[in-house]
Every structure is written in structure tokens, then in C-alpha cells.
Amino acid sequence: MGLTSSSTGAGAALSSLARGEGPLVALAGNPNVGKSTLFNSLTGMRQHTGNWAGKTVVCAGGKCRDGLTALVDLPGTYSLMARSAEEEAARDFICFGEPDTVVVVCDATCLERGMNLVLQTVETGARVVVSVNLMDEAERKGISIDLPLLSERLGLPVVGTAANKKRGRAELLEAIAAGGSSGGMRVRYPDAVEKAAARVEAVLEKRVNGRMDARWLALRLLDPDPSLTASAERFLGFSFFADEKLRTTLAEARLGLLREGLDPARLREAVVSAILAAADGVCAGAVSFKKERGSALDRRLDHLFTGKLTAYPLMLLLLAGILWLTVTGANYPSELLVKGFERLERLLDSALSGAPWWLRGALVDGVFRVVAWVVSVMLPPMAIFFPLFTILEDAGYLPRAAYVLDAPFRRCRACGKQALTMCMGFGCNAAGVVGCRIIDSPRERLLAMLTNSFVPCNGRFPTLIAMITMFCAAGRAASAASALMLTGVMVLGVAATFAATKLLSATVLRGTPSSFTLELPPYRVPQFGRVIVRSVLDRTVFVLGRSVAAAAPAGLIIWLAANVTLGGETVLTHCARFLDPAARLMGLDGVILLAFILGLPANEIVLPIAVMAYTSQGSLFGLGGLAELRSLLAAQGWTWTTAVSVMLFSLMHWPCATTLLTLRRESGSPGMTALAAALPTVFGAAACILFNLAVRLLG
Amino acid sequence: MERQIKMCSLRPGERAEVVSVEAEARMQRRFLDLGLAEGTEIECVGRSPAGDPSAYLIRGAVIAIRASDAAGVAVRVREGGKWA
Ligand SMILES: Nc1nc2c(ncn2[C@@H]2O[C@H](COP(=O)(O)OP(=O)(O)OP(=O)(O)O)[C@@H](O)[C@H]2O)c(=O)[nH]1
Ligand SMILES: [Mg+2]
Questions:
Q1: How many distinct structural domains can be found in chain A?
Q2: Which chain A residue has its CA at the smallest distance from B41's CA?
Q3: Is A305 helix (H, G, I), strand (E, B) or coil?
Q4: Residue ranges of domains in chain B, CATH in brackets
Q5: Helix A478-506 and helix A311-351: axis angle, to 10°?
Q6: Phi/psi of residue A144, nearest 5 degrees
Q7: Do A159 and A252 belong to one domain?
Q8: Domain boundary among A261, A279, A298
């Protein structure tokens, strides 16, 4: 989960990874083995890490501490015969990105699986260094690994590391500097396969001309995978199919295999089994277990967090607990910030006392006020919720949530991993949409992308909290009541996600659920200090940047609209009146709806814009906190039903501009993007209208 | 004594050895990537609240698999394989 420019913006592209003067080194490995943690340790950068498979979905680049080596952090992949988009990205970089060295990071607690990828990487002809990571965890679990023996068997440099403790870093840097080895152990396949591969290899040899390993390509072409073939053709610059000689040789080789009883499925099995057997052979005797494999403590925790009776209550309790900490914790810094900004406003006012009224108005009443509001009221809950959620993520809870929520998603004909992307949506919907790359099936991936904005992102939290605090919860246990109500809103968002997913898979995205596997990683003690410092700082910097970029112009527009008159009335009044009938139907008013529309660039500016619009219509209002705001809104005719309608519409309306752009990029389809905007809007409008009807009928 | 059943019929705590893996091509690949192949020892370590999917310990990693996918994997249960 992450909301920074690198996870949502253009930084997601591979373009920044251009090779520098020094060597280009890729960090590859199975999911969740600590590649990104190692990357951070080697570069001093802050790539997002998290305790679940599929955290990293795009390649990220950085300079190694030596200032020369360019390092690339790849998404996790089980093998080079990829299934999903993020695995394809990793495979393409290893096979066609021409890295000088590939560091294959393995998990010391399940080494055979890592060896599987090591052997496959060696086959591509890459120069390989093996990093056996999570050594500390392996030791704790009574697993000991004979690294020199591994190195001897593999014919590769092998370094034991513990990425989060800097252990083995110097040795790994040394091994990287030495460039790794291309003379690693090669897997031997059954004779029939070797013979067929040799035939194709002989033809490919000249055509490939040393640009990639001909034997590896020959093996792949015997059992072709469309996406790999396409990438290879793009890389080599010629079409395999158009090549007469190659085509006939391939056909003959495949026929030969068929005669030996190796149809495509059997061939695949034979190839993978040979690699697996070789991986087992490498580990046999080099890895020893002093204890029973698997952690008893983890199983006991799983019993609690995924147990029949305890799973759902604990999930709600965790959510409510986090929200309670957020609501309670945000009050104090918010008050401080409000005071600070009030003082700043007075200073600004006196500094601009000689300036023309319109300049002072545009700058102070327009730009400054909206930015101050975003920072003082919207930012604190965002900066608190985010690290708390990250701690849950670091502990390894998210995959458990996905495991528990798989059944309802299956009933909606969707993938259980959608629960993971939904959780990421709580942080940022744009990041959630990118995260959908972990879902293999294109249909299920679209389902997850289109419904991601049904859960309230971090930017919408403050609005929800403000509404609840001002109009719904009061009295002594106010913050506990707020947290509970907020939990209710979250649950409503999840329910709406299910409803929308079900609706989509019964209409435009019809199909049957495809297969998937979900890793339940070991529970880990979160890195509290690092998580808190990093995510608070990252979040603060990001929101500050965005508030200047989005809130400032929006504040200016509102101020202009409130001060430019057309036919005796301000532009703002015209707009609000135009929107009013539709808004009234939903229990809102024209100004709020206008604020939602102008809030398109970022959800956290919606409420500040509305406040700004109300005050510019003549109400007197200092900067103030929520208490002052409450009386202002009440004077504008707000009641608790208005607040609930705002919450419903905030929960379900069009996604923010960043998310829409991300959707456009990830789906490649303007139609799907439009659907992703229309779907929650229709849901939200319907919910508001029904709610207000119900209130009118009952009240 | 040994009995052969589908992987999805394993009860939590039961251990077994994989006999054969049948699945559509992509899932078969994924199973093999995870090290789920003939001869591999696995253990069912839990069920989700709704009864499906279940979690299996496969070569040191815990993997959740839906019953419909695990149905293609035949396993041999060893008696006395209870998890303590
Ligand atoms: N104890 C211990 N924990 C580690 C070590 N390396 C990484 N971790 C933790 O393992 C988890 C996964 O780390 P990541 O760096 O996100 O793993 P990744 O390989 O990038 O994962 P994907 O991007 O999902 O493929 C995080 O919670 C890390 O804090 C290690 O050497 N020892
Ligand atoms: Mg990563």
C-alpha cells in the first residue's frame, strides 16, 4: 500500500531505469523474500515493503551506495514462465532487460522454491549472484544452511543476508561488484527434451547471434507462451513465425516429442519436474531442519485470525481500533495546526495590508485558507491512519484478510486477491488499482480495478471523520462512537464493493472465477519505528505537495467564482443554483455538489472547498476548527441527514483524477475508465436518494 | 495403512504425499512453481471461516488454495500424521 508519486504517477514506468555508466543489476526472486528491503538497504532509498506476496508490482530503479551500480527492484515471481502482469514485468527485465548481473534473492526458510528460480535464471545465460535472505528468521526456526556447499553445487557466488539488519550487505556488495557468474549449474532434462531442444537451438544459434541464450529460447519455443514469445520477438527484432527454417524445425521437434509421449502438458511437466528435482538436489544435505517445519506460533495466530468464530469479529475489532486511534490521535495536532495557521493568516494579512483588495482576497481568502484547511484538518487523520495500517500490513495480516474474505469474493465470481487490492484502496485508490496487477485473470483484474474506489481512500477519511464528529457523535465517549460509526461506513464500503462486483460479473464482465493461490507469509514483528517515521513523513510530504498543487488553484477558482459577477449575481451562485435541484434530491446542496466536482484532483480538498464557498457567500468565519465549522454549516441549513448524505456521497462517487488516470493507463480502455467513474456515482446517488426518502417517510 | 484422496478433502492437521497433479495448464504451472509435485509432502494447516479455501504447508510456505483448484491434486494420507 502506498501513496507517493512513485507508486501512482509516472514514476511507475520503467523509463527511469536507464543504464548509467556503471553496471546494471537486477534484484529478482520469489514474492515476499525481501527484495525491496534489500534494495532499500543497498541504495538507501525507500521503496515500499510489506509482508505479503505482491507488494511490488512495478520495477523500480536506484543507484547503489557505491554511486556507480544501477540497481533495479523487480516484482516477485515464482518462475520465468510468468502468469500475471507483474510477473511478466519481472521476467521481461531478467530476460530482455540486459542486466549485467541478476541477484536472485531466496527465502532461507523455503530455499527449494528459490533454487527453482535460480536455476531458471542461470538458464537464460545471465550472470547470477544468489542472496539467501531472511537468514535470521531461518535460524530462529532451527533451519541451518551450508552456504559454501550451496555455492559449490550451484557454481555461483552465494551470500547469506538479513536485509532488515544489514547483515551480509558488505559481502553482497562485493559479490555484485565482482559481477556474479555465468557458469552456474545447468539443469539436465530427459533425453527426448534435450534432443528436441538441441535441434531448435542449432537453428536459433545464428539468428540470436549471442544476444540471448539459444538453448533457453529453444526450450521456451517448444512449449510457447504467447507473452514470452512476443517479448522475445520484440527484443530480437524478428518474427519466429515468419522464419521458414525455424518454423519447420520447431514443428519437427514438437512432433518428435509427441512421438515420445510428450504432448504440451506432459512436456511442461517434464521440464518443470526436472528443474524441481535439480533444486531439491541442490538443497539436499545443504539445508537441515532442527525443528519441525512450519511455525506452531503462526498456526496458533492463524487459528485466531482466520478461525471460524474469531475471524470476522477480530477483523472488525482491528479496523475499529485503528480508526479509534486515528480519530483520537488527530484531534490534538489538528488544534495546534489551526492555531498556527490563524497566526500565520494574521501575519499575511498585515503583510498584504497595502495590496489591492482583490490580491489580498485571492491570496488569503482563496489560496491560503483552502491550503490551511487541508493541512490542519485533513492531513492529521491521514498521517495517523496510514502508518497504523502499514503496521498491520508489515505484521502479515493483509493476506489473512484476503483468505477470510475469499468466500464472498468467490460468490461474486471474483478473485480472492481482490481483498488485497481492496485493502490497498484504503490507503490510496490509485495504488490499489495498480496493485490489481497481482490478479492473473484479465476479467477478475478489471473487476477489482473498477470497484476499487468503493472503499474510502485515505483522502476521504478526514471528510467522513469530520461529518461524524460534527453531526453524529457527541458526548463523553464521542471518539469511541465516532470510531464505531466510521467502522460502519467502512463495512458499507466493503458491502458496496461486493454488490458492484457481483453486478459487474453478472453483466459486462461475465465469466467464471479462475484459479489462484495466495501465500500466507509468516507473521513478523513490524518495524514500528521505521514504519511510523517513514509513512508519516512520506504521507506529509505527499499531501503537502498535492495540496499546493490541487487545493491552491481550487481555492483560487472558488474565490474568483465568488467575486466575479455576471448579471448581478456571482458565478458561484449561478453554478450552485444550477446544481441545486440534483443536489437537493440527494440531500445535499448545490455548493457541496460543486465542491465534489472541483475536488476531482484530490478528495481531501472537497470539504475545504465547500467551506470556502460558504464563507465567500458572506458568512463570517475565521479559520477555526470543527466546532466553528459546525455552527457555520448549521447556519447553512445542515442537519444530520445532510451530513449522512455527504458521507454516502463521499464514500461513493467518481474516483479522484489520479485514480482515473491510473485506471485509464492500467485498463487501456477509456470505456472501462468511464464505467469506473459512473458505477460508484450511480451507487452513491441512489444511496443518497433512498436515504433521504426513507428519512422523509419515517420522520 | 494408506488412503488416496483429493487434496481438498484433507482435514486440518492431516499430512499427505502428493500422488499426481492435474489442473488446467496455467494452474498446473503455478502448482509446480510452488513445489507441489509428485512426491512432495504437504500438510493441511487450516480452513477459512467459510470452509473454503484451505491453507496448506508446502515446502515451508503456507499457501491458500480454493477447493475447486485443489480437487485436481491427488494425495496419499499417511496414518499417524496428526499434527501435534
Ligand atoms: N526478519 C527478516 N525480515 C525481513 C528480511 N527481509 C525482509 N523482511 C521482511 O519481509 C517482508 C517482505 O519484504 P519485501 O522487501 O517487501 O519483500 P519483496 O521481496 O520485495 O516482496 P514483493 O515485492 O511482494 O515480491 C517485509 O515485512 C520485510 O520487513 C530479513 O532478512 N529478515
Ligand atoms: Mg518488493
A1: 3
A2: A293
A3: helix
A4: 4-83 (2.30.30.90)
A5: 110
A6: -115, 145
A7: no
A8: A261
